């Protein structure tokens, strides 16, 4: 079949596109880019010097700060002028400890010496006590101790070659008090040089740190006693006025261009200058080399492209043909505009995707309403707070930093609605009211949703920011309630009562809060067109409130549904203890226990079990009425209601769990060679991973991954002994990549697969 013309044309375009851009880019980079790169390199060098100055400043500032703190913390209980270092051993030992701590407090500190003015001596942790006998030496130290500043730098003490020329002096005590002592902190030259030498890590340039008078503090990698020619040239540049507070320039030395950056740092009483010179050739050489390589590659590429582009284009065109076959089997790409065909198919798939998304969007409101209905009716009490929050986020609601408030609307008087409605129109009224409420909430920009209970009652869940105050929240809720009542009354000509509930951060408490809010509707007044009720004022009931532990009862019913017998017994005992604490009379405790017993009975029936069959037709209320002691009632509930139910529930659950695990084992045995996981098996068998994991361990005594690993290794050992297949092929057959299979096999069997096969062959012989 004749090849289409557009394919040859595209081959030529591909060939030119592969060669010409590389050559053009190489020329542009080589001709025009070098100068710009030099400027950028110079700018980067200046930024590097500025950063180094800032970092060195931070280290020296930290040193000055901690030494100032030590000058106040070095307190021996008496003044240094009264200290006898030979007699007062305790104070002398404290001085040695303090000097050790000071030395270890900063890595820049090389040596710390305490000068005592009255005693005319020096104390150092390494050299011990040194009495100053020389008058000239004593005069130097007294001059340092009488300086006007409490903390300052000096270059008068630089005898030690391992220390930097500058030392930090801290007068003790400072201020206007006559100085009794001074701390002399010598800087470790190696540490300081390491900070400076980072500006010239490869050693091709030079870096200097100079005093204000031009004296050398550090030359980085070079010794200050043996500066190089480049070091001396850089110092002359700084000394001649080239070193301002911050400057950058290009200098030429020995026919080589250098980027020179100079900066200054202010120390206490001194101004230090740092300068760095880096060869520009080192910065631009990689780019120049790359430009030449690109030009050469472009020239050679033209020749190579003539031979390879056609072959490459054919190979690139094969995936298009395969894609066409996937979209429509049996259709050939020859002579067709494949890209137009793929575009048409893509549009078709996009339309189908949009249709599916539209269907999801269409059903999302009903899914949300159903979730809210189940949540407010307490049908989701078995879910944890985190699981409820996950469901909320899946439905597109914001769950973080939110509190939830509930409003309940009750519609009355539809038969007095001026003939607008008639008997049997209750669903229509509820539907119309819900649409009006939803539209009003949407127009006001309120984050909320509505639930229709189809009995002329609507529930409104409002989500508010967690940082909103209680007063602000209640004000907004009452304004919303008034507007809802007024709008429904005006449009539908019906009587409307709105009960405003409290607010909570926990989704699990919404069902209880909704019940309280709905129960408050019983306190409405007759023949009022619009009423707003505050459930928080109505529900407590003043002094007649009952001390019944509702939350503990909810926990008991939750444990009953889940079949957790140990937790259930513990909760029943705690419930009884709270009854005895909160109720004064035995009659009150008995009534509360009867209430609990009825709710437990109702929960068992809702779970699908007949209490009469569980208790062999035992008349529960007759038995309970005959029991006089409250403790005996609790025991009777445990023995005749809870225990039979738990036994039956566990029996049913065990059968279901065993059947589930058997199905999972069958999946493992048939699909072990594939990439299967606990989550995959849970999805296949209609459960969730956590339940399957616990159930698998309970039934088999092993975790899912341990069982799968052992089964795969058993199959692998069979293949190693019974076949001559390669070990890599066996690894793939049992579901592992060869390197991981070898490590796993050795971990469990203590030998490699090859050693296992050899051992098996020896046994056969």
Task: Quickly describe the structure.
The longest helix is centred in the N-terminal third of the chain and has 69 residues, at 5-73. This protein is 58% helix and 15% strand.
Describe this structure in words.
- With 765 residues, the chain is α+β, with helices and mostly antiparallel strands.
- Among the domains are: 51-281, 2-Layer Sandwich (Beta-Lactamase), CATH 3.30.450; 363-544, Reverse transcriptase/Diguanylate cyclase domain (Alpha-Beta Plaits).
- The chain contains 24 helices and 16 strands.
- It has a 6-stranded antiparallel sheet with strand order 3-2-1-6-5-4, with helices on both faces. Strands 8-7-11-10-9 form a 5-stranded antiparallel sheet, sandwiched between helices.
- Helix 11 (510-519) links the parallel strand 15 (495-504) and strand 16.
- Helix 1 (5-73) packs across helix 6 (280-327).
- The longest helix has 69 residues, at 5-73.
- It is extended.
- The model is unreliable at 1-6, 329-335 and 541-545 (pLDDT under 50).
């Amino acid at each position: 079949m004749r090849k289409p013309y557009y394919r040859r044309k595209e081959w030529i375009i591909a060939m030119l596109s592969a060669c010409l851009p590389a050559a053009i880019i190489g020329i542009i980079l080589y001709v025009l880019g070098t100068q710009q790169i030099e400027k950028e390199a110079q700018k980067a060098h200046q930024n590097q010097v500025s950063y180094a100055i800032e970092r060195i400043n931070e280290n020296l500032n930290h040193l000055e700060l901690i030494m100032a703190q030590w000058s106040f913390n070095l307190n021996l209980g008496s003044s240094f002028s009264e200290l006898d270092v030979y007699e007062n051993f305790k104070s002398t030992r404290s001085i040695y400890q303090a000097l050790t701590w000071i030395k270890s407090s900063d890595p820049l500190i090389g040596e710390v010496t305490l000068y005592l003015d009255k005693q005319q001596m020096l104390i150092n942790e390494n050299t011990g006590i040194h009495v100053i006998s020389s008058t000239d030496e004593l005069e130097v130290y007294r001059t340092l101790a009488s300086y006007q500043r409490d903390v300052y730098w000096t270059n008068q003490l630089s005898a030690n070659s391992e220390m930097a020329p500058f030392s930090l002096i801290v007068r003790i005590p400072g201020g206007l008090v006559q100085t009794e002592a001074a701390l002399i902190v010598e800087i470790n030259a190696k540490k300081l040089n390491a900070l400076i030498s980072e500006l010239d890590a490869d050693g091709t340039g030079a870096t200097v740190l100079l005093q204000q008078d031009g004296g050398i503090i550090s030359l980085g990698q070079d010794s200050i006693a043996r500066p190089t020619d480049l070091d001396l040239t850089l110092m002359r540049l700084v000394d001649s006025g080239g070193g301002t507070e911050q400057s950058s320039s290009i200098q030429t030395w020995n026919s080589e261009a250098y980027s020179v950056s100079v900066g200054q740092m202010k120390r206490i009483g001194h101004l230090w200058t740092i300068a760095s010179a880096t060869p520009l050739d080192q910065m631009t050489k990689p780019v120049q080399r790359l430009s030449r390589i690109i030009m050469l590659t472009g020239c050679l590429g033209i020749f190579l492209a003539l031979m390879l582009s056609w072959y490459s284009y054919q190979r690139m065109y094969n995936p298009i043909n395969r894609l066409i076959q996937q979209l429509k089997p049996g259709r050939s790409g020859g002579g067709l505009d494949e890209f137009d065909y793929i575009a048409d198919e893509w549009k078709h798939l996009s339309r189908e995707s949009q249709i599916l998304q539209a269907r999801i969007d269409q059903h999302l409101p009903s899914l949300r309403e159903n979730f809210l209905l189940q949540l407010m009716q307490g049908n989701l009490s078995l879910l944890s707070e985190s699981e409820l929050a996950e469901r909320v986020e899946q439905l597109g609601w914001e769950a973080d930093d939110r509190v939830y408030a509930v409003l309940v609307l009750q519609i009355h008087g539809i038969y007095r609605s001026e003939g607008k409605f008639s008997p049997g129109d209750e669903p229509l009224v509820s539907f119309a009211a819900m649409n009006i409420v939803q539209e009003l909430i949407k127009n006001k920009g309120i984050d909320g949703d509505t639930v229709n209970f189809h009995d002329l009652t609507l529930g409104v869940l409002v989500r508010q920011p967690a940082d909103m105050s209680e007063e602000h929240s209640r004000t907004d809720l009452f304004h919303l309630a008034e507007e809802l009542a007024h709008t429904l009354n005006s449009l539908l000509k019906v009587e409307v009562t709105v009960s405003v509930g409290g607010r909570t951060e926990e989704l699990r408490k919404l069902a209880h809060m909704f019940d309280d809010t709905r129960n408050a509707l019983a306190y409405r007044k007759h023949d009022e067109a619009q009423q707003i009720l505050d459930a928080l004022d109505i529900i407590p009931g003043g002094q007649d409130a009952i001390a019944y532990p509702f939350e503990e009862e909810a926990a008991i019913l939750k444990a009953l549904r889940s079949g957790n017998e140990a937790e259930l017994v513990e909760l029943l005992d705690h419930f009884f203890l709270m009854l005895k604490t909160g109720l004064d009379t035995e009659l009150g405790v008995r009534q509360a226990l009867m209430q609990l017993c009825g709710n437990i009975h109702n929960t068992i029936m809702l779970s699908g079990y007949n209490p009469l069959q569980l208790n062999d037709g035992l008349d529960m209320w007759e038995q309970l009425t005959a029991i006089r002691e409250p403790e005996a009632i609790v025991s009777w509930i445990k023995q005749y209601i809870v225990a039979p139910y738990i036994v039956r529930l566990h029996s049913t659950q065990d059968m279901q769990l065993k059947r589930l695990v058997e199905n999972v084992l069958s999946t493992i045995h048939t699909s072990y060679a594939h990439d299967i996981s606990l989550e995959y098996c849970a999805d296949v068998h209609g459960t969730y991973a956590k339940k399957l994991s616990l159930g698998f361990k309970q039934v088999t005594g092993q975790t899912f991954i341990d069982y799968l690993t052992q089964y795969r290794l058993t199959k692998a050992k069979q293949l190693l002994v019974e076949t001559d297949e390669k070990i890599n092929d066996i690894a793939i057959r049992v579901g592992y990549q060869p390197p991981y299979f070898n490590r796993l096999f050795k971990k469990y069997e203590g030998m490699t697969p090859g050693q296992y096969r050899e051992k098996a062959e020896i046994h056969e012989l």
